[in-house]
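User: For a benchmark we're assembling, each entry needs the component sequences followed by a predicted structure for the full assembly. Here are entry 17's components. Please fill in the structure.
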Amino acid sequence: MGGCSLGDSQVMAVVNRSIALIDCNNFYVSCERVFDPSLKRKPIIILSNNDGCVIARSQEVKDFGIKMGVPWFKVQKLARYYKIIVFSSNYTLYADMSNRVMKIISEFASNQEVYSIDESFLDLTGFNHLNLTDYSQNIRSTVNRLVGMPVCVGVGSSKTLAKLANHIAKKCSLFDGVCNLNEITRNTLDVLFSEIKVGEVWGVGRRTEEKLAKLGVTTVFDLKQSSPQALRKQFSILMERTVRELNGEFCIPLEKSNPPKKQLVCSRGFGNPVSSLSELSEAIIMYTTRVAEKLRRQRSMTATVYIFIQTNPFKKKDQQYNPGCLIHLASPTNDTRILIRAVLVGLKSIYKPGFKYKKAGVMLEGLLPFNQAQKSLFDDKGSQAYSENLMQAIDTINKTMGSGTIKFLGEGLEKQWEAKAERKTRCYTTRINEIPVAYC
DNA sequence: ATCACGGTTTGCA
DNA sequence: CTAACGTGCAAACCGTGAT
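Assistant: Structure for entry 17:
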């Protein structure tokens, strides 16, 4: 905090924060467009895993009124009518593009929180001598020039306001991609906020919006004028914070970008329903392998594994059966082989023939840092070291030669159950054999 | 009363 | 021809039994 050099002065100036939220426009769609510019200005849809739901849409598709998250089969005809171009999601490509974008953004401030695959907060407090609107325009053009990714920037004195500002920047072309709420007058702000539905506020979901409506709170302005104390009683501490943040109070600090996860999951629906124990085992082994890789990447150990299998809840006529099984391991591990042994025992205990299973998953809970993992009394130091070296070697080979180069026994090669991805583009940036010839 | 706990709900991207 | 509906987190909330 500047201006505090008056020695014994206890009065600290309350610095008005400047938080920016940089959010990519139609992120998945924009990733595809970077590698095929002919897709620009064309209507594009990206499908979720298993080609199940619509999870990203270009502006043209939003204008057609196709909603986020709708099952693909419900809009397939409409999509054909509008000549919409459809892709399966290519997470490898999107993750790599995200890393590039975040790296560039990180150069614009010392404190960055990567909030999601396409969003990042920056703390621009202390940059107030600059024109932050210009500075934000600079961020936009730099990201666009270096990786071809269009982004919008919202600036406010709290994370909640930065989010809201970003929403405004995206909706009103008047703002030219940057909305800085800190340089808008109080009266204009009130008008602006009374035109935005309260559901747009970060932390207010569908249920909370309904509940707020019953109290007569329907716009952002209404929520901003509400009493934080009163709302805390009816909702929770989160709602109190949200109201305070709307009024410019900085309550929710920026967090570390990659805190180790407390829980790791790998779950997936099947391309075709599965009934046999052998096929379920293959799927569960593959998910266990993936989740164990995540575990080692964040240098953690786990003492429990939870597995589940599920029938299709949308098929009301089918008999439903959704069992799960929590397994406590003798001592914390990150060894894929130990985890596989455990989950197979668990799977056998819950499996029943005669059901059409649609989805399965593996979950690791109560994770602890590798160096804190309490080794069990009878643990043999030699086998511990062997296990660590083996896993490290496998991870390195799979990382450099391509994931799946080394597999664990039982994952299967046929994989009849594997999810559908019939319209996937190439991994342009991460797989040498998928780079288009023209780029070589 | 209060706590720890586990399962459920909510929200987010 | 028909049927076809994601994944991965965190945290609050809430009922329960134990103390």
